[in-house]
Specification:
The protein has 114 residues and is α+β, with helices and mostly antiparallel strands. It has helices at residues 12-19, 27-32, 40-50, 64-67; strands at 5-10, 22-23, 35-36, 58-63, 71-75, 81-85, 89-90, 94-99, 101-102, 108-109. A three-stranded antiparallel β-sheet has the order 1-4-8. Strands 3-6-5 form a three-stranded antiparallel β-sheet. The longest helix has 11 residues, at 40-50. It is globular.
Length: 114
């Protein structure tokens, strides 16, 4: 895969855990055995399907290259390949993060590093 950045949607409590240096995963991640990530193209659908109606969400841009072999691309929703992280998400692999915001057209505003 040519993708080098993926995204993780986090609740406020999960973001606080990541800011402490390490995030082991949301309940679904822990249950599935990997941290679910999405590409930029998959992010809006992930949010709409799994986080609908939730507020106080954050989006973290994850450096897939820094995670190396811990990331596996696997078929998931609709046969699409999604990046799955087999291990904890660490703050040093985060390129940028911020509150989940949408553009006027509904598109997700991706976090940008300062």
């Amino acid at each position: 895969m040519a993708e080098t950045i993926a995204y993780k949607v986090l609740t406020a409590d999960q973001m606080a855990a990541l800011e402490q240096g390490r995030f082991r995963g949301a309940p679904i991640d822990l249950g599935d055995g990997y941290v679910h990530l999405s590409t930029a193209a998959q992010l809006a659908e992930t949010i709409d399907r799994h986080f609908a109606g939730q507020t106080g969400l954050h989006v973290a841009a994850v450096d897939l290259e820094a995670l190396g072999d811990a990331v596996k691309w696997e078929a998931s929703r609709g046969g699409q390949s999604f990046p799955h992280l087999y291990g904890a998400l660490t703050l040093e692999t985060i390129l940028a993060y911020g509150p989940l915001e949408r553009e006027p057209d509904g598109a997700i505003r991706l976090p940008v590093a300062g």
